Amino acid sequence: MVRRTFQLIPGVGPWKEKDLWARGIHTWEDFPESGVVLGQKLDGLARQRLALAREALEHRNLTALAAMIPPREHWRLYPEFARDALYFDIETNGNQEQEPTVVALFDAEGLRVFILGRNMDELPEAMARRRLWVTFNGSCFDVPVLRQYFGKRFPTPEAHIDLRFVCRRLGMGGGLKEIEDKLGLGRPPHMKGVNGWDAVLLWRAYLARGDVEALRFLVEYNLYDSFQLRALMDTAYNRALDELNMDAVARLPVFERGEVLYDVSRLILELGPTQRDLKVLERVRAQDRDLRQD
């Protein structure tokens, strides 16, 4: 789809792009090397921009392509750079000064979880390895929270697709879970109805009592928030092609989450108490013994 994108030419918006398609100029290669297409003043610039775009794509220069293509159309870059994609979601402590508590990443290498007080400091380096970020409302929440927390250590991606806005343009409003349910991508029964505030409560239960089961539930919830984005991205891309009547462009196979559910179970079971958690439990048990004596 990226090769069919003409909105990288200054002065070409959605309607003029569709006009080019209607005139048989479907791809960059179809743009005539001579003659008047967009107008004498614009044609020279158009050919220059298309040449730059072809060179950037040939060298897989995502930074250059993302700079040329309007952010609202960055979804078109997805198939070309899907192997470089990072799907992620964060949970926070719910305080006025938001801190990330659990962050789940999903990419071509699989799932990873970063937990405050355990391995959260390793997150910036892990995220920096991927050039294309995919989130749901991440441009408004996740990324600002992480940037505030990590400061200059936090990386900037070459491109960021925020599915909240892609889905809204496709007539799919609402939150992530609501959209998943409408698309048949719903979560298992024990995850139904769990929301962001529940995630805050689970974290607070873990901190207060060293409740590892609360942490495991929180991590599972967060993992779903990350890898479900892959299926939503595939589905949104296909629907966007349908909206543009791009019958000649291949649709993407929608990601099947069964491929990662084993990894979800493994990561959750590996979570055990830290020395700090054990000290919390010791204090709680001591208080419990005191109460029983009363």
UniProtKB/TrEMBL annotation:
Top-rank taxon, per record: Bacteria
Transmembrane segments: none
Span of domain YprB ribonuclease H-like: 86-236
Pfam family membership, one: RNase_H_2
InterPro entries: RNaseH-like_sf, YprB_RNase_H-like_dom
SUPFAM superfamilies reported for this sequence: Ribonuclease H-like
Protein name (database record): YprB ribonuclease H-like domain-containing protein
Organism: Cystobacter ferrugineus
